[in-house]
């Protein structure tokens, strides 16, 4: 009987490299696939794709697997980046990593892998997938054991077909253990810094990058009481809760606390700012979200205590699903949530099982 063929998304980073190594050790027939998904100004200053490919090839050679490269930049631009720009232009703050996972890493990549004869795909995400123990044939997405690295939030729009074909070998490992494995096996990227920034685009000055696609539309920056305190460059360049980059100095009648973005008035092109992290306009008891996706195919129950995140680096917050239909969900929290942001994703959990979620329409 032939060994299952797993194609691993090899990014050149330590996580995907150790993923490929572990699967080979477990007896799978492993092939690496390097995805190039961005070509605009692909320079060494911000995009590391050239070096990443070199590292991925080096790792594949070291652990003894074949590797090929594929270019998904057209799919990325069409399925992810166009939506990214549309959302910013509408005054919302999208999360491209979530859409990128659903459309590129687990759709374009999965389809390509299957066309190459793969049985399964695998990535270096910190998450887990299992068949539902009380509902055979239905797959669940679980948090990783390493809570500080858990990436289930970014995988919350995956569906049953995608999860049924996916392995997450790092789900039971701590990050320090992954680096130790890489060191023990002499992988070139054992100490390589984790990538951050926009999915596939890399780290770069964000406002400068966005201005190339969405030209400046300056307007006034004012307090809720109407006092003008500065000028903004364009509402699309700011997000709720933002503190850095507002360029507002102190004034004699100010309380000396830092300024935060509290609201965007699209019709009048005004940016509303407040002072103090705990300003009431930055706190909300709940939210409404649309574009819903539930991993199991079943909606969560109302009047049942769940937990949810409205941004990645946030502790789980106890909540209830107050109302739900096919179009929108209303979620209420037990405690005030800070700077709930339209365009971001709310992701709902029951214990360590990720149920899915939706795109935030607004706070309530």
Automatic annotation (TrEMBL):
Swiss-Prot/TrEMBL site (Interaction with tRNA) positions: 125, 344
Domain spans labelled tRNA-specific 2-thiouridylase MnmA-like C-terminal: 284-360
Keywords, ordered alphabetically: ATP-binding, Cytoplasm, Disulfide bond, Methyltransferase, Nucleotide-binding, RNA-binding, Transferase, tRNA processing, tRNA-binding
Domain tRNA-specific 2-thiouridylase MnmA-like central: start-end pairs: 207-275
Enzyme class: transferase
Region (Interaction with tRNA): 149-151, 311-312
GO cellular component: cytoplasm
InterPro entries documented for this protein: MnmA-like, MnmA-like_C, MnmA-like_central, MnmA-like_central_sf, Rossmann-like_a/b/a_fold
Reaction(s) catalysed by this chain's protein: S-sulfanyl-L-cysteinyl-[protein] + uridine(34) in tRNA + AH2 + ATP = 2-thiouridine(34) in tRNA + L-cysteinyl-[protein] + A + AMP + diphosphate + H(+)
Enzyme Commission no: 2.8.1.13
Active site: 100 (nucleophile), 199 (cysteine persulfide intermediate)
Gene Ontology MF annotations: ATP binding; methyltransferase activity; tRNA binding; tRNA-uridine 2-sulfurtransferase activity
Name of one Pfam family that matches: tRNA_Me_trans_M
Residue sites binding ATP per the record: 9-16, 35, 124
GO biological processes: methylation; tRNA wobble position uridine thiolation
Region (Interaction with target base in tRNA): 95-97
Intracellular or extracellular location(s): Cytoplasm
Gene3D superfamilies assigned: Adenine nucleotide alpha hydrolases-like domains (2.30.30.280), HUPs (3.40.50.620), Translation factors (2.40.30.10)
Protein origin, superkingdom: Bacteria
The protein's role, per its UniProt record: Catalyzes the 2-thiolation of uridine at the wobble position (U34) of tRNA, leading to the formation of s(2)U34.
Family: Belongs to the MnmA/TRMU family.
PANTHER family named in the record: MITOCHONDRIAL TRNA-SPECIFIC 2-THIOURIDYLASE 1, TRNA 5-METHYLAMINOMETHYL-2-THIOURIDYLATE -METHYLTRANSFERASE
Entry protein name: tRNA-specific 2-thiouridylase MnmA
Taxonomic source organism: Methylophilus rhizosphaerae
Gene name, Swiss-Prot/TrEMBL: mnmA
